[in-house]
Structures are given as C-alpha cells and as structure tokens.
Amino acid sequence: xxxxxxxxxxxxxxxxxxxxxxxxxxxxxxxxxxxxxxxxxxxxxxxxxxxxxxxxxxxxxxxxxxxxxxxxxxxxxxxxxxxxxxxxxxxxxxxxxxxxxxxxxxxxxxxxxxxxxxxxxxxxxxxxxxxxxxxxxxxxxxxxxxxxxxxxxxxxx
Amino acid sequence: xxxxxxxxxxxxxxxxxxxxxxxxxxxxxxxxxxxxxxxxxxxxxxxxxxxxxxxxxxxxxxxxxxxxxxxxxxxxxxxxxxxxxxxxxxxxxxxxxxxxxxxxxxxxxxxxxxxxxxxxxxxxxxxxxxxxxxxxxxxxxxxxxxxxxxxxxxxxx
DNA sequence: CGCATTTACTTCATGCTTAAAATATTTGCA
DNA sequence: TGCAAATATTTTAAGCATGAAGTAAATGCG
Lengths: 157, 157
Known about the structure:
Chain A is about 65% helix and about 10% strand. By secondary structure, chain A is mainly α. The mean pLDDT of chain A is about 90. At the A-B interface, helix 1, helix 5 and helix 6 of A face helix 1, helix 5 and helix 6 of B.
C-alpha cells in the first residue's frame, strides 16, 4: 500500500497549480451555463453579450479600436461580431467626423432594450450560481482577485 | 452632484455579479498568458495541451468518447484536435478489439516526452502568476472553489 | 433470426478567436 | 508640398467550439 502524502505540505507550486485547476473548472462550468442560457433564452452568445454590455456603458458609442481594447480581444474579432449584431439591428456603425478611417459603434434603441432584458437575466443566473457565497464571502474573494489582478498587471513590465 | 452609494450595502446579487466579473477577468488574463507562452515556447495551444494532459493520466489511452467526457467538450471537437496531434506524431488511434466503431487514443513516446516538458513549464508559469497567494491562501481559495463546484453540481438536478 | 434502437465516431454549418497581411486614411516632418 | 510612418479597420488563414446530421457497427428483443 502507498504512503499517504495527503497531509504533508505540498510544494507551493503544486498548491497553486491545484488552485488554478479548480479555478478553471469553476470558470468553465459557469461560462458553459451562461452560454447555454443565453442561447436558449435569447438566441445569442457570450461574445455578443459582452459587446453589448461594453457599449451599454457608453451612450455615445465606442470606436472599433476602443471596443476591442475594452473587451481585450483582437480587432479582427470585433469586426465579425459587430457585423452580425448590426444585421440584427442591435447596433450601428456611424462615421467619425474628421477621420474617414474610423467608425463609432453604438447600441440602437432596440439593442439597448434587448441588452437590458439580457442583463437582468444574466445577473439573476449569476446570483443563483454563486448563491453558495454569502455577500461577505463574495466580497472577500473579490478582494483577493483584485490583488491577483494587480500583481498580474505589474509583472507585465 | 450624485449621492454616494459606494459604502451602502449592495444587494447580494450585485456583490456576486462583481465577483463573477473579477473572476472572469482573472481567468481570461491567466489563460491568455498561458496560450501565449504555449505558442511561443512549444508551438502549441491550450486545447492541445489539455488533450495531452488528459491522456498522460491514462497510460493505456482513452476512447474518443471518454476523452471528450473527461475534457467536457463536444465529440466533434476532439476529433479535429486528435487529428492534428496525430499528424504531429504525439498520439495514435488504435483499434479497440471487439468494437470496430471505437478507437483508443494514447500518447506516443514522443508525445509523452513533449508533454512532460510542457507540463513542467506550465506549472512554473502558474506558480509565477499566482505567487501573490501564499500556499495557505491558495489552499483556502481552493476550498471555497470546491464548495462552489459542489453546489453547482447539485443544482443540475 | 431480423430489424429497430443505441452507441461510437466523424462531418457539417456556423460562429468565435488569433496573428498577420492588406487597405485606406491621417499625421509628421524634411 | 511630398512622402514615409503611424493609425483604424477589414480580410485572411488556421484552429477551436458547438449542436445537429450522417455513417457505421453493435445490441437487444420480438
């Protein structure tokens, strides 16, 4: 029979790897449910929701480049998603006065209304999935994640 | 001027939504770095790494259906990734005696060696990115994530 | 046995994702 | 002014992801 290493201290790197694996699993599990719910209830996808969420915070819209920066995805990626959302009438590209290369994207009235319904449902789904965390526990973990983000940013330079 | 709501208690659902947004941000940030590193150092991708990681735990290989179950991705998805890894000589499909529909996939010697180098680098990257968490803090968060997973599983039925 | 159902897997259509190349326009400066 | 460099965006090629449809083989039961 094997020795029981379970209660011996693991090297720090193993402990952190274990954390990452759990982290990823939880994240993927929640994301999968969100995708499925968005698909079933609103015939849309997470990337489309993300674009609309970003635009909903800027009444006068965002330039394509700013939009891809906010979402932290590539320019080319945003082009396709915006194309499709435009076809659905949820947003429009407007010319930017004085710069014929650029365009400003903003939600239409219909897009804003649609997004508000999606956002309310989204918040309820998250509240349900994370109900195991009390508001205090949620705040505590949020704080730790903010530390993590800060340390990840710092290492970039 | 607007009232300052910042220090009033937020509804639980807002607190949890905030947690989810931080969670997603951290997860995407770490994943992006992993993808970039895998690409630069090993000319591979996270899905390929995931497939090899899964197979590395089963010396005699896995059937395609079991592989997609373990990875929690669709069957059709696994087909393509396995196709490409096979072309690279990192794994092989073997016939399953007594069932001509099925095939068993396992790492080749070259695939196992390659994976072991990738896994060592992967662990070091994670250790670096999560270094802001002490082993104790890491264990603590891992425990909370396990609670979360358990509660997510339970709600499925 | 015969044939409907189930199982294992691949293919297909569509969309998301990236990096890199291409296009168009603006800016800066010799 | 003229033109090289920078900027804003789209296009392209390749891979990942899904759900659904298709193919082939195995199973089960009347």
